[in-house]
Amino acid sequence: MEYFPAPLEKLVEQFARLPGIGGKSAQRLAFYVLGLPETEAREFADAIVDAKRSVTCCPVCQNFTAGGLCPICASPKRDGSVICVVADPRDVAALERSREFNGRYHVLHGVLSPMNHVGPDDLAIKPLLDRVAAGGVEEVIMATNPDTEGEATAMYLARLLKPFDVKVTRLAYGIPVGGHLEFADDATLSRALEGRREI
Is 80 within 8 Å of 103 (Cβ atoms)? Predict the structure, then answer.
């Protein structure tokens, strides 16, 4: 039995398809959108359609851009000899917030995941190899997540990059700033010991 009119049910279903949105949250969002003035609702819908239509991938790094090169690839101030490989455009935003990295990026748009039927051909691996093969790259930093799929992806790429004679590094992992040793798991402590550095 439907509690709401069909168009409202459809709107709830669409919101429920978003990651991290359950049935109740989808209902709340749908009711919120229905409560918007007509102009604001249209602006919301137009923003979705416009983003879907105009946002593309940078031809160099595969990050999102509104056409042409992304701002990072277009910047002459960035160090093109260092490429940081990430799984997702959100990871670029996270690293940029740190203001510590001045190189360029490469976005894979996923990680290897046989369980989810994601193989090497489903990722932006070939453009990375083409960039390194073109020369000028001295280091490739693997910045995929420290989970099974992220580690497998980093190891796979490291093997592919071996013939190009570039330095391949992995982000260091360990105890978070403000964390306590007693709450760290064995794997984290092990990584922290392996990645220790001189002070």
Answer: yes
What's the chain's average pLDDT? 89
d(CA 15, CA 24): 10
Quick one: which of 146, 148, 153, 143 has its CA closest to 123? 153
Which amino acid is located at 96 in the chain? E
Q: Which residues contact 14 (CB under 8 A, 6 or more apart)?
A: 26
Of 198, 132, 192, residue with least CA distance to 168: 132
b/e sequence 164-197, b meaning 16+ C-beta within 10 Å = eebebebbeebeeeeeeeeebeeebeebbeeeee
How far is Cα 180 from Cα 123, in angstroms, rounded to an integer? 37
Taking the C-alpha atoms of residue 150 and residue 161, their distance in angstroms, rounded to an integer, is: 16
Q: Using an 8 Å Cβ cutoff, are 26 and 12 in contact?
A: yes
Average pLDDT on 15-27 reads: 92
**Range list of β-strands (E), the chain:** 56-57, 64-65, 79-86, 103-107, 139-142, 167-170
Angle between helices 125-133 and 148-161 (to 10 degrees): 30
Q: Would you place residue 1 in the very low, low, confident or very high pLDDT band (cuts 50, 70, 90)?
A: very low
